[in-house]
Description:
The structure holds two protein chains of two kinds.
Chain A: H1 2-23, E1 26-34, E2 44-47, E3 53-55, E4 61-66, E5 70-78, E6 81-90, E7 95-97, E8 100-102, H2 131-136, H3 144-148, E9 154-156, E10 163-165, E11 173-177, E12 180-182, E13 186-187, E14 197-198, E15 205-211, E16 225-231, E17 239-245, E18 248-256, E19 262-272, H4 274-279, E20 291-302, E21 308-325, E22 330-348, E23 355-371, E24 374-394, E25 397-417, E26 429-452, E27 455-466, E28 471-483, E29 488-499, H5 503-509, E30 517-530, E31 534-551, E32 558-577, E33 581-594, E34 603-604, E35 611-620, E36 625-634, E37 638-639, E38 642-648, E39 653-658, E40 664-665, E41 669-682, E42 685-694, E43 702-707, E44 714-718, E45 724-732
Parallel strand pairs in A: 1-7, 1-8, 11-16
Antiparallel strand pairs in A: 1-4, 2-3, 2-5, 5-6, 9-10, 11-12, 13-14, 15-16, 17-18, 17-45, 18-19, 19-20, 20-21, 21-22, 22-23, 23-24, 24-25, 25-26, 26-27, 27-28, 28-29, 29-30, 30-31, 31-32, 32-33, 33-34, 33-35, 35-36, 36-41, 37-40, 38-39, 41-42, 42-45, 43-44
Chain B: H1 2-44, H2 47-60, H3 67-85, H4 92-112, H5 117-133, H6 138-155, H7 160-172, H8 181-197, H9 210-224, H10 229-243, H11 248-261
Amino acid sequence: MKLFILLILLSVSAGLHAQSDSMKTSVIKGTVKNSKGIPVEGANVVIEGTIDGSTTDDKGYYEFETSKSGKRVIIFTAVDFGEKKINTVIDPGSTLILDVTLSNTEFKTDEITVTASSFTSGENSKVTLSPLEITRIPGADADLYRAITTFPGSNQVDEGSRIAVRGGDPSEVLTFLDGASLYNPFLFSDNYNTSSYSTVNPWGMKGINFSSGGFSAKYGNVLSAVLDLQSYDMPQGKGLFAIIGLANAGLSGVYRTNDGKFGATFSAGQFFVKPFLEINKDNTDFSPVPTASNIGGTLVFRTSRTGLLKYYLNYSYDNMGIRSESPTYSGYYFGRTKNFFTNLKYSFAPTDISLLSTSVSLSTYNRTNKYGVLDEVSNSLYGKVRTDFGTPVAEKIDLSAGLEYEYNDAKENGRMPAYFYNLREEAPYFTLDYLQKTGRAGAYAELKYRLSDDFLVQGGLRSDYYTLTKDAVVDPRLSLVFRVTNHSFLKAATGIYHQFPSLIYFLQGNTTNLKPEQAVHYILGYEYNRDNDFILRIESFYKDYSRLVSNSYNYYNYTSEGSGFSKGIDAFIKVRLKPKFNGWISYSYVDSKRTPYDGADKISADFDITHTLSVVSEYNVTDYLTVGATYKVSTGKPYTPVTGSIYDPSQNAYIPLYAERNSGRFPAYTRIDMNAQYIFSLFGKFAVAFLALNNILNTGNLYEYSYNFDYTQKKTINSSNFRTIYFGMGLQL
Amino acid sequence: MKNKFKIFLAAVLILTVSAGIIKADDFTDAMLKAKKNLQTAMNSYDEKALLKSRGEFERILQLKKQEWIVNYYIALIDYSLASSAMSDPSKKDVVKKYTESGFANLDKSILVRDDFADSYVLRYALQFNRWVYEQDKMNDIIAASEEAKTKAEKLEPENPRLYLMDGISTYYTPEMFGGGVKKAVPLLEKSLDLFGKRTEKEAYYPDWGKDMTYGFLCLGYLKRDDEGDKKLAADLYSKASTEFPNSTFLSGYVKKEMDKLK
Lengths: 733, 262
């Protein structure tokens, strides 16, 4: 018993001793700064497991007293910065000085990013364009590809949505959606004298980034430019939006369950251009009149705190006929396409700072062309599996890496004219019944290294293996950005880019000897950006092409002997005068040359459009009314003139004799578009009315030259994009 | 001996339980103190005081108790910091920073307790701030605001802060879009009525907003300008000033706006 009392006494005295120790207060003080040495105001400092601590003042200084002692952990936190823990020993009655540097957890809006050749208009420097801007750009017809052509370096193909970038071919542009490659996202693509429209709904995208060169190793099998789209993850609520216009109607909606674990979106649209043609007195001879349908949507499941399963689907259909005259046939060119795309993506965070995503996508494209003897059906299928992983590997280094496998097959059936100059219905033809397949396995790894707050380097390496030709390529890529002053940056990028030739060349040429086409990009640019209110960007580029698909003199004998280059300067000035005015001017100079056939000298490439100028302005007349105008002018595109003809009695047709390829030029292209939008309330719901006046000067821009039967008379065929008026409205339901 | 051992055990138990009570009191005391400091900071609209108060709540998180209400308060301070930056166009980044932080802290709170109506009222309020930096996500903002408001209504239809936020939103929404001062005034009156009847379940639960209701109602009366509205505004302002003598919102913003309207 005595022993028991003794033990109690001992423990009580130990407690008292400890208490007297802890009664001696210590002082902890110091400063909290960011990695630039700037004081962090409002940072919280606390001893773990206690409420003893303080908040930093505007000099980053903190000081507090504590009765805690011994081995302790001090935690430093601040909004936008990562948590920092420091293990220390607090001696009773002492003063402890802890000066701490916090690092940003995420990029702030003024963060420098490797975006050489990405022309920003949106608020966020990571986003090239916002959906609102796309709908406001006059002449863009709310189409994101057309909107992109108001930025330097890209040109519309036939005034439609397909784009050619920095003197390259339109096929050198890749659309990337949630990790999947999206091929042919267009309606009326490649139809005779008909502008194409995009099937991508910009309002379904949370991120729209366009890069016209020097892009990351993440993107494979593309030579010139990337449009990277990220669709919304979980919708934010529930709602329906309807739109009706002179040529189309659409309905879109979003839904999310109350627990936020399931969400869905959909959009459906129908083109019916008859009223549009009648009101605009368009005399173009269509049969059938162009129609198109588009339906798509997403299903999203939140599988865990960070896990997200997203299913995306889109289907489109278009059908049209347009009268066309050629030396041997006069009739309707008929075109129809069916386009299906689906993607299943699962992403989750294996740790608090890393992200892993895997996607499986499938797309099919079916196209029918008929004109005289030509009656061709082509089908292509793409399937892709892709995994991407990203994580910081050190305080200033982020790693991203990924793997992908893509399958592609192409089929061609029907009949092709045996003689390109004889298209009569009864003309000789050869039958097509071909199938070709290929696969591509790719892998990349990339490091983003923030050498300092003002200097960012991104270096990557990717490799692709093409199963059809058993070719492996290795593409190193490097980008860097240096912040010269608070508002100005120097940007540079270089890299090797490869793209596999279209399977059509393998089918038509009956060959497996074609190599992946190659381009080496060199980019150097300067940007001054004052809070997105004033932006000046100047960028020079040089693209060195090799192993391009080229013809020998035999029309269908393809080789990989082609080469070329494209060089030029892009300039961009944007001014925003809040809250009324927003506008930009973009100018591009391009010199693009390629070998027309094996062994020939380099001549102008098909999209060697020397000068392109776009002026875009938007003015908010009131808070509800916005008006805008766009002026575009560019050098006419190259074409190959006909210099004479020879009569072929066997075909009873003349064979055209051509001058040197692309030795002629169309007249300059000009166009002025205007639009207006008015926001109002209808039945207590949000509504917007819009009006577009396209090509208000009714400029007859040349589409092509047509010839009479013996090529002695040349006729100009103007673009079908005459002056038009379009109006409609959208209503929140 | 047996009895002595029982006494010893009882003493140990009492000590353990009282230690627990002390811990609980630590939390309550800390919360009440932090809430008082927050009220002072919100009254003064002082960014530095708000940051200090934010740190105080963050430190309470270390006690690992009732984190949901602590996170709610941190989100509320984020909302206040974002709102105070809204009048300055050059501080768009600040609005974004604190609004996004507010959403993140509110999510943490709702994850632990998803039936607290005030959390959804705050989420509703935070959505307004997105207009400053995400104008292109108009449909999202409208849908998310409606969702948060519906959820709050379902959980607590008589929440005065819900009517306050609805009233402010209606006050600033143009008439052509279903808003306007005439529709806002009844909502603010309802809010004031509900504030009068309300007693919080815990002393440290949120009770902010009454001064704002007074202020907006004063402005609402003056702007509506029906017969007798001017007197209503003057009487109400006098009452509000007596009840909230330290409110900078009332003595600064509201007074100035009232003078302009007079």
